[in-house]
Write a structure and sequence with these properties.
The complex is a heterotrimer of chains A (212), B (231) and C (647). Chain A has 212 residues and is α+β, with helices and mostly antiparallel strands. Chain A is built from four helices and nine strands; from the N terminus they run βαββββαββββαα. In chain B, a hairpin with a 2-residue loop joins β6 and β7. Classes of the chains: A alpha+beta (212), B alpha+beta (231), C alpha+beta (647). Chain C: Keywords: Activator, Nucleus, Transcription, Transcription regulation.
Chain lengths: 212, 231, 647
């Protein structure tokens, strides 16, 4: 895997999420991208159980545990603006053991599922972001496989994204800001997904319920 | 290769097959829960120790008894982290990294309380979770709220016999916390551990382990030692 | 009293110097005395001192040497000693008297015997039955004593002999033991041994080298004691012998062959027993090392075969692999079969008549047999090295790359690449395909080269090649014109399924495994070569090329490839030669003459002017086979020379 950019595609005016996804995928297919099965990225939220005594500072901090079909044997654990741990699938077992300290808020489980496309050196994943049964938004992931240095390929990626996303092509993702010349890692993709999913969750929660 | 080993390998490969099949052939989107991992693994453990001067003869014996693999030495740095809850005993996690093979992943280990169970069992049995992680494990554990309790360097030899792992190592204390540059041996002896990690309920293993321990008998006495009683 | 003049052994005094013997002297000077003996005690003590043998010894000696010292000399001494005894030795008096009288009797007897022996004064004559019994006594006595002494001597001799044989046997036994131990030590250096109970078991399996074959592969070390010591020990005697499992006895090999036609299914699996003559086994048991090595080889062959048959059943191919008894049959190419058979001859079958079968021994592909062995060893090594010791040591066992898969977020392709392993059978089939393709290519080229003399075809095979790929350089030349006609150089890369042809100019053509394709291709290249040669020749001869085409669209259609054509004109421009060469139709050479030279050209009214005479006339075909010259290019050179006017 190379440099990856994850962004949100706004739902087109007067269209449903599903329809917007279809428009996007059709554009990709017209470009010549090949459909290559499906993908998923999921994200579970854990919060510390009932404020431990000595850890006042930790309170309210959320931990996310994520999985991606791209690396099926891996499990990602991360904090907002914190480190991202990449572990093997046994990490999920550990979280079960830790349930006295970290509780999984099932209601906050959010995932993105969709189709995976390949277009020459690019991998494109168009996913429908869903919390429970309802679709909440669209995620677009573009992976330029041959390159691991952001600066070397960012312009190419933007150009490519513009070709099917038009004006919705994103700006430089925040994780890239301190990564210009260093090697891109799969964890950076997960951080982007985490931020994106959080954003979508908050967007929806704000107007819809306003409570947590 | 023993049956359990084969079983485990088979299990693993089928799981991978399942993953691959899953991702390639695009099954229904809501197919399976994503959480993976091997649940309910148990560590069977026997421990003992030898004095430094009898180390060579023990190693010699082990080389004869164990599988013909390239002889392994190791030097690991282990850190023990505690997470204190409001009540009850703290949650202990062990993070280990290889000092001689720094490219290998870190190893995060959870060890449960030893199973009381029946006395006739020959080995200590406890729940265990083995996780391979990236190298920012320490930072992450601290972020999770864990506190570093103690750390040490383990240096020694590792052998394999079927599914059994035999480690003979010496524990070193770190003179400067966090720095493995200056270390000091804790004792004049080597710790000897025979362990097997297997799914729960395979007590045949402990029998096998005892037989093996018998073969080491005059050199080292391996017993089931309850860490709680020692402390 | 053994010699003359020796003192009597015991000197007896009547009174002791001190009445009472001092037992000990105390520190205060007081003496403790031994109580004096009473009469009977004293007697007993003195009786102990009497040396009865002294008297008899003297008698013996005297008897032994009749000419020796006179009898009387010793007697007075004796007498003297005994007389002095008398008063105190009252109870022994009768004994003394009897002894004395016996001595006298004996002396008389002795004298008589001496006299009789001399036979001068007295002779002994046998007498009647009722003769004097004492007369018979002496020979009997002698006989008895002689017999006694003889038995004594023989006894001693026997005892000595026994001890000697014992010690000899012991040293031999020791030596044998030592030999056994040293042999055992040598065995131990090469083979894994362990002691179970009172047996020594060894391991000849490849398990420690990474084999997963379930055969236990145990052999037993036995002491070779059943040897007759009377017979001469054979030179190759070894005190250590090994007992190998019965199913590993004999010898085995794997036979790999590629055959054209599949034989009847009915007799599959029974063919291919030993056809090569078995090496005549030497009398006597072979050395343990050879025995073990042979057994190990049998085991390895069995493992390879088991692995292959397992794969043959598991792998799904378009044409299923057949496993029958000791044979695996696969179809690498249509109409072709690869058979791998396990030939195992156990000792008892050794004398069976070798099955008469003509077809096979020579098509045994030794290379593939060798490669099979190599592959299984690679496989073993992979088994060993795939499970390296975990680092850190607390981590579970497992594939090193597998452990990295999680933390390094391996993607699906990386994970599948970890999983993928090509089986032994697939590899060997690929190798067989390659070998077959290579052989057939060589044959095709050779048969073309021998069939077609002009142009010549040369093949340069590379010495070193991969198991799946080899290459050959094919040059098409004309004899005698190698330097100027180097147009066709082909590099044939022979793979597993196909042949890649690389032209000198970089064009790549991929041919399938079909033999005909390669043959047709080469034929068309050869035909093109002729035209190329004309072009090269024209350059040398100073002729000019007017037109050149590798693929002519006109004329009769060739069944393979296309015809090629060239037209050249002479330096003066008077003549033109046009050549058309097709792979099938062969060459056709036409010469165009200047108009003026053509006699039978009908006079045209239009072309009156002289200048028109320089126009070219019609083409005339050259009867090429009637031309002189040994090959096409030579003929062409002659033709060109003929058409070039000397100036």
């Amino acid at each position: 895997m190379g440099v990856t950019c994850v962004c949100q595609m706004p739902v087109a005016e007067g269209k449903s999420v599903q329809q917007t996804v279809e428009i996007l995928t059709r554009k990709l297919e017209l470009l010549g991208a090949e459909k290559q099965g499906t993908f998923y990225v999921d994200c579970e939220t854990y919060h510390t159980a009932a404020s431990p005594m000595g850890n006042q500072g930790q309170q309210g901090k959320l931990m996310y545990v994520m999985h991606s079909s791209e690396a099926p044997l891996s499990c990602y654990a991360l904090f907002e603006n914190g480190p991202c741990l990449i572990a093997d699938a046994n990490f999920d077992v550990l979280m079960v053991k830790l349930k006295g300290f970290f509780q999984n808020s099932k209601a906050n489980k959010i995932e993105s599922r969709g189709t995976r496309y390949q277009y020459c050196d690019f991998l494109i994943k168009i996913g429908t972001v869903a919390m429970g049964p309802s679709a909440r938004g669209i995620s677009v992931e573009v992976d330029y496989c041959p390159c691991v240095i952001v600066n070397d390929c960012w312009n190419l990626m933007v150009e490519f994204m513009q070709s099917f996303m038009g004006s919705h092509a994103p700006g430089l993702p925040s994780v890239f800001s301190n990564k210009h010349e260093s090697v891109y890692s799969p964890a950076d993709t997960m951080v982007q997904y985490m931020e994106l999913l959080n954003k979508i969750r908050k967007q929806q929660q704000g107007p819809v319920s306003g409570i947590r | 290769m023993t049956d359990t080993d084969a079983l485990r390998n088979a299990k693993r490969s089928t799981r991978i097959d399942a993953w691959c099949g899953y991702t390639m052939e695009a099954p229904p989107v809501s197919a399976m829960p994503v959480s993976g991992g091997t649940i309910n693994m148990m560590e069977y453990l026997l421990q003992g120790s030898v004095l430094d001067q009898s180390l060579e003869s023990l190693l010699h014996r082990l080389r004869g008894l164990c599988d013909n693999m390239e002889p392994g030495t190791f030097q690991d740095h282990e850190m023990v982290f505690l997470l204190k809850g409001q009540q009850g005993s703290p949650f202990v996690l062990r993070a280990r990294r290889s000092m001689d093979k720094p490219t290998m992943p870190w190893h995060l280990r959870y060890l449960g309380q030893p199973e009381m169970g029946d006395k006739s069992r020959h080995a200590l049995v406890r729940n265990c979770v083995d996780i391979a992680t990236s190298d920012n494990l320490m930072e992450f554990l601290l972020e999770m709220g864990f506190r570093l309790d103690h750390e040490f360097v383990a240096q020694g030899h590792i052998f394999r016999r079927g599914s059994m792992k035999i480690v003979v190592y010496k524990i070193f204390r770190l003179l400067v916390p966090g720095s493995t540059d200056s270390i000091e041996a804790l004792s004049l002896s080597y710790l000897v551990e025979v362990s097997v990690v297997a799914p729960a309920g395979q007590d045949v293993i402990s029998e096998e382990m005892r037989n093996f321990a018998e073969q080491l008998k005059p050199l080292v006495h391996l017993e089931k030692i309850d860490p709680k009683r020692v402390m | 009293m053994s010699g003359p003049g020796s003192a009597p052994a015991v000197r007896i005094s009547i009174e002791s110097a001190c009445e009472k013997q001092v037992q000990e002297v105390g520190l205060d000077g007081s003496e403790t005395y031994v109580q004096p003996l009473d009469m009977s005690q004293n007697l007993a003590r003195l009786a102990q001192r009497i040396d009865f043998s002294t008297g008899s010894g003297g008698e013996d000696e005297a008897g032994g040497s009749p000419s020796g010292r006179d009898w009387g000399a010793s007697e007075p001494e004796d007498e003297e000693g005994l007389v002095k005894f008398q008063p105190s030795l009252w109870p022994w008096d009768s004994v003394r008297n009897n002894v004395r009288s016996a001595l006298t009797e004996m002396c008389v007897l002795y004298d008589v015997l001496n006299i009789v022996k001399d036979k001068r004064y007295m002779t002994l004559d046998p007498v009647s039955q009722d003769g004097l019994p004492p007369k018979q006594n002496p020979p009997i006595l002698q006989f008895v004593s002689k017999k006694k002494s003889l038995t004594g001597a023989s006894h001693i001799l026997l005892k000595g002999a026994e001890r000697l044989t014992k010690s000899v046997a012991e040293t031999q036994e020791n030596k044998r033991q030592r030999d056994f131990n040293s042999e055992l030590l040598r065995l131990r250096q090469h083979w894994k041994l362990r002691k179970v109970g009172d047996k020594i078991l060894g391991d000849l399996s490849y398990r420690s080298a990474g084999s997963l074959f379930p055969h236990h592969g145990t052999f037993e070390v036995i002491k070779n004691t059943d040897l007759d010591w009377d017979k001469k020990i054979p030179d190759d005697y070894c005190p250590l012998d090994v007992q190998i499992p019965s199913d590993l006895e004999g010898s085995a090999y794997l036979k790999v062959s590629i055959q054209k036609q599949s034989p009847d299914i009915g007799d599959l699996g029974t063919i291919n027993l030993f056809k090569r003559p078995l090496p005549k086994s030497k009398p006597g048991a072979p050395h343990w090392q050879t025995k073990l090595e042979a057994a190990q080889n049998v085991l390895l062959c069995k493992e390879i075969f088991a692995q292959l048959s397992r794969e043959a059943v598991q792998i799904k191919s378009q044409i299923p692999h057949i496993v029958v008894k000791n044979q695996i049959i696969s179809q690498p190419f249509p109409g072709l079969q690869l058979s791998i058979s396990l030939c195992h001859s156990s000792n008892d079958k050794k004398y069976q008549k070798p099955t008469l079968e003509k077809s096979s021994t020579e098509d045994h592909l030794y290379v593939l047999e060798h490669n099979l062995h190599q592959l299984i060893r690679e496989f073993h090594k992979q088994n060993l090295s795939s499970s390296v010791m975990p680092h850190p040591a607390s981590a579970p066992f497992g594939h090193k790359r597998m452990r990295l898969a999680g933390p390094q977020a391996f993607d699906r392709s990386e994970i599948t690449s970890l999983q993928q392993t090509e089986g032994l059978l697939e590899k060997i089939i690929k190798q067989a395909k390659h070998i077959f393709l290579r052989r057939r290519t060589a044959r095709t080229i050779d048969s073309l080269a021998s069939r077609i003399e002009d142009p010549q075809i040369q093949a340069h095979w590379s010495n070193i090649n991969d198991v799946y790929e080899s290459s050959v350089k094919v040059l098409i030349t004309s004899q005698g014109y190698e330097q100027i006609c180097k147009s066709i150089q082909l590099q044939l890369n022979i793979g597993v399924e196909q042949i890649r042809v690389v032209h000198r100019d970089g064009r790549v053509i991929i041919l399938s495994h079909q033999e005909q394709e390669l043959q047709d291709f080469l034929l068309s290249q050869m035909s093109q070569h002729q035209v190329h040669a004309v072009q090269q020749l024209a350059k040398v001869m100073g002729w000019q090329v007017l037109s050149f085409s590798n693929h002519v669209g006109l004329g009769p259609v060739e069944s393979i490839g296309n015809a090629s054509a060239i037209t050249v004109t002479s330096p003066s421009g008077d003549y033109a030669i046009s050549v058309r060469n097709g792979p099938e139709s062969g060459s056709k050479v036409m010469v165009q003459f200047p108009r003026c030279q053509v006699k039978d050209l009908p006079k045209s009214d239009v072309l009156q002017d002289v200048k028109w005479n320089y126009l070219r006339g019609p083409f005339k075909e050259v009867q090429w086979n009637k031309m002189e010259g040994h090959n096409f290019v030579y003929k062409m050179e002659l033709l060109m020379a003929a058409l070039t006017p000397c100036s």
